[in-house]
Design a protein that fits this description.
The protein has three domains: 98-293, Type I PLP-dependent aspartate aminotransferase-like (Major domain) (Aspartate Aminotransferase, domain 2, 3-Layer(aba) Sandwich); 351-518, Aspartate Aminotransferase, domain 1, CATH 3.90.1150.10; 535-592, no CATH class. α5 runs parallel beside α7 (142-148). The model is unreliable at 160-171, 185-193, 384-388 and 498-528 (pLDDT under 50). It has a nine-stranded mixed β-sheet with strand order 2-10-9-8-6-3-4-5-7, with helices on both faces. A four-stranded antiparallel β-sheet has the order 13-14-19-16, sandwiched between helices. Strands 1-15 form a two-stranded parallel ribbon. It is of the alpha/beta class. 40% of the residues are buried. This is Molybdenum cofactor sulfurase.
Length: 594
């Protein structure tokens, strides 16, 4: 064992690796994730990985049993119905939700569950949809239903909660209210605010951009109308329903509905245990379910219908009323095997394990310095202990900087990471509010970026000197110290001076860094028997390069490697995808003759 890992275990050993559990983390990786050999998978917020033993159990189940369409009366149908009933109960148990108070509606994913709430909620001209800035696009999409029905929408930034240390009660929450959205100004002005309308408040249990956790006391605060707005505007009247997007947070800290009785909670199962994909759930309080209005009906949702007259009798069961068509029963049958994995490790142990790795990585990245003393990394989402959101999930979101303070493009980091056997994600992660908030992007900045052609998932990672997204490392129950070490070594190799990393970080972080050689690039390779034939320089991405028989070295490798690029007048990086081939050929010929 190397010295760095000994230091890590000395600090985090009680939390890391499932001590006292049925298997250690090393045993889990060796027996259940053999396909990860040589790879560091660090995108568990995007999709966590299924266990090989989990899939073997699923295959054995499906090949040993006959599951028929549950909309029938055969023995195979009854077997399916029992599996589905058991799966619903497992989901409710996972959230500590009483089956008397909550129902589990299976959907095609968390997005479909959110869409169901949006289209079926009893919106009116007096209704309001309020959501936190840090929300996934799938939550923001609900406002389209609200606005279409004449309701208004607010985006709020939760700032601080005042806690009563003696009673444990939360007195109020301060929030910054952003622009009011409405599609019918006349209707908006005519609102009587009688307090009879139903309003919806939505927030994530954990931000998928930064990993910041939202205090679930928000459920009680909203229902008791205790939000106070910093602009002095009055609280919104009416009856409040609360929606929690737990798609990200549920893997390490599922909401406890016995303590925090939210009306709607959405989850996605591939975020929990990798398989199945295309399956999620809406956990809905029975009182809230009675308010939802369905227009469409389909097979499975009706007790009877007549084809040539307008007659339909809908089913009375909540699940049957909202599950259109035949549910994906074979995928549902596989849920028990995924829950078995989580239950064997226990959620508290998974939370401690992933948190130890995330904390260690944050500490290392914060300690990194360039030779001139400037910080290499800006981490997003860190909060002070006095704020409402004072805990962090197993997500580390950040951007890297050059020695002169300019940003390293996140897409550049992602591409180099992929070449180094590291899988991670970059961009805004479908969370535009959090992205703009943490990156400091104004409405003007966002409009300028869009006008410059920037869209999600493209290569425009820096515009006008500002990053358009971030790098995200996210961890799962099978993540290891070695994964983090591989990533830290990657950052050190490509973005930090070897000498600075080895010497300065050791002293700043009390020896808890990854140990690297103290010699620079030139010393390590000048004495080796290497015979350089040629070097190809690519001045423009995606275009042909030109060959050289020599190139100067620096302490980081080839001099100027990844330290320059060609930009347009708007600051956009030139590539073959963005500029005509004719223009690039002219540039290529010009540079070849310089």
């Amino acid at each position: 064992m190397d010295v760095a890992k000994e230091e890590f275990l000395r600090e985090f050993g009680r939390d890391y690796g499932y001590p006292g559990g049925p298997k250690t983390i090393d045993e889990i990786r060796a027996t259940e994730f053999k396909r990860l050999s040589g790879m560091a998978y660090l995108d568990h917020a995007g999709a966590t990985l299924y266990s090989e033993l989990q899939m073997e159990a699923i295959f054995k189940d499906l090949t040993a049993n006959v599951y028929g369409n549950p909309h029938s009366q055969s023995d195979s149908s009854f077997a399916t119905s029992e599996i589905v009933r058991s799966a619903r109960q497992q989901v409710l148990d996972y959230l500590k939700a009483s089956p008397k108070d909550y129902k589990c509606i299976f959907t095609s994913g968390a997005t479909a569950a959110l869409k169901l709430v949006g289209e079926a909620f009893p919106w009116s001209h007096q209704s309001s949809f309020v959501y936190t800035m840090e929300n996934h696009n799938s939550v923001l999409g609900i406002r389209e239903y609200a606005l279409e029905q004449g309701a208004q929408a607010y985006a709020v930034d939760i700032e601080e909660a005042e806690h009563d240390a003696f009673t444990g009660n939360v007195a109020s929450v301060q929030a910054t209210k952003h622009q009011i959205l409405t599609r019918n100004e006349a209707k908006f002005l005519d609102k009587d605010h009688t307090g009879s309308a139903y309003n919806l408040f939505a927030f994530p249990s954990e931000c998928n951009f930064s990993g910041s956790k939202f205090c679930l006391e928000l459920v009680k605060i909203v229902k008791e109308d205790l939000i106070r707005y910093s602009d002095g505007s009055p609280s919104l009247k009416g009856r409040w329903k609360v929606l929690i997007d737990a798609a990200k947070g549920c893997a390490t800290e599922p909401p406890d509905l016995s303590k925090y009785p939210a009306d709607f909670v959405v989850i996605s199962f591939y975020k929990l245990f990798g398989y199945p994909t295309g399956l999620g759930a809406l956990i809905v309080h029975t009182d809230a379910a009675k308010l939802l209005k369905r227009t469409y009906f389909s097979g499975g949702t009706v007790a009877a219908s007549i084809a040539d007259i307008n007659y339909v009798k809908r089913r009375e069961g909540i699940e049957e009323l909202f599950e259109d068509g035949t549910i994906p029963f074979l995928s549902i049958a596989s849920l028990c095997h995924g829950f078995k994995v989580l239950n064997s490790l226990t959620i508290p142990a998974i939370s401690r394990h992933t948190s130890s790795l995330a904390t260690y990585l944050r500490n290392i990245l914060v300690a990194l310095r360039h030779p001139n003393g400037t910080s290499i990394c800006t981490i997003y989402g860190s909060r002070s202990s006095k704020t409402l959101c004072n805990e962090m999930g197993p997500v580390v979101s950040f951007n890297l900087k050059q020695p002169d303070g300019s940003w390293v493009g996140h897409r550049e980091v992602e591409k180099l990471a992929s070449l180094s056997g590291i899988q991670l994600r970059t961009g805004c992660f479908c969370n535009p509010g959090a992205c703009a908030k943490y990156l400091g992007l104004t409405h003007s900045d966002l409009a300028t970026n869009i006008e410059a052609g920037h869209v999600c998932w493209d290569d425009c990672d820096i515009i006008n000197g500002k990053p358009t997204g971030a790098v995200r490392v996210s961890l799962g129950y099978m993540s290891t110290y070695e994964d983090i070490k591989k990533f830290i070594d990657f950052v050190a190799t490509f973005f930090v001076s070897t000498q600075t990393y080895a010497k300065d970080v050791r002293s700043q972080f009390c020896g808890r860094s990854i140990h690297c050689a103290d010699t620079g690039f030139e010393n390590r390779y000048s004495a080796s028997q290497l015979d350089l034939k040629s070097i190809t320089v690519y001045p423009i991405k995606s275009c042909a390069g030109f060959s050289m028989d020599r190139w100067p070295l620096s302490s980081r490798g080839l001099l100027h490697d990844r330290e320059w690029l060609l930009q347009s007048l708007t600051g956009e990086t030139l590539t073959q995808k963005k500029v005509s081939v004719q223009h690039l050929l002219c540039l290529d010929i010009f540079l070849s003759n310089v």
